Amino acid sequence: MNKALMTTMAAGAIFGAGVVATQVTQAHANAKSDIQAAQNKVNAAKAKVDKLSKGTKATEMQGGIPAHLKQQITDAQNNIVNLQNSLASSKKNLQYYLDQKDVLQKQLDAENTKANSISDNDPSFQQVWTDFYAAQYAVQDNDAQIHNAQGWTKSYGLQVQDAQNTLKALQDKAKSYGGKTVTVKKVDQTSLAAAKKEYQDAVKELKDAKAGKAKWKMPATGGHNKYTKKTTKKHTAKKVVKKAKQLFKIDVKASKVYSYKTIALHKAGRKLEKKGTKLPVYKIVKKGHKEFYLIKGNRVITADKHDVMKIK
């Protein structure tokens, strides 16, 4: 064989091996990054569980106070709040009708002047007196509303005072039981349960990330390719390159479908696959309950039927 040709072939082999080595190194780096990210999630979730498990400080009354007396005190406190809200509403209504009084009185005075100055033969005579009586009724009705609001305001004021006296009597009674205020730690069980679930999910994601390295070993589809799998035997330095088996092709249906560098689906390095693009599928992989396709370029894409469609 021609020496020049042999030299060219050897150089090509060395170049191809270098590309494969670089791509394998990058794949390992990506896998390591995914595992580290998943480990960080586990650590953060564990710290959250530990913090919530310790609880937070809360002040409460403890001692010999009977449960029914505690409930009576709580009910009395709630009753005062409700009555105070009713009193505030009554005062607001009273102020409204008081403000209306001057406005309505001026309207009545104006209508009274018109009625006293109009002739019996005037075509608008009937309308003027109708307006006068309407204004007079509005003033009378407003006065009645003022009286009613004043009554409710006074009533609610007395009820608030009675409720406050009742609460004070109950609190004085509670003191005789030797109750005391102490600071305790309370655990929010709902938040803790949510944090534990978050920790379990993070642990599973870490497990998937560690196991994911085996899923990305894929033979080349032809020529020098990042899917090239290197097998080394002790007795030889030869590298075996296998062609990937294409399972089928898919057609991108949706307008926004991304392919990702790893199954962790990090945004960094993701690629928008245009609608109508046809892609070969070499492997089906899973993450949790979801399926993804391994496509050319050692990338993953969703297997959702709304986004992609099998065409071959």
UniProtKB/TrEMBL annotation:
Ranges in coiled-coil conformation: 21-93, 160-212
Keywords: Coiled coil
Chain intervals for the UniProt region annotation (Disordered): 214-236
Composition bias, Basic residues: 226-236
UniProt protein name: Surface layer protein A domain-containing protein
Superkingdom, taxonomy of origin: Bacteria
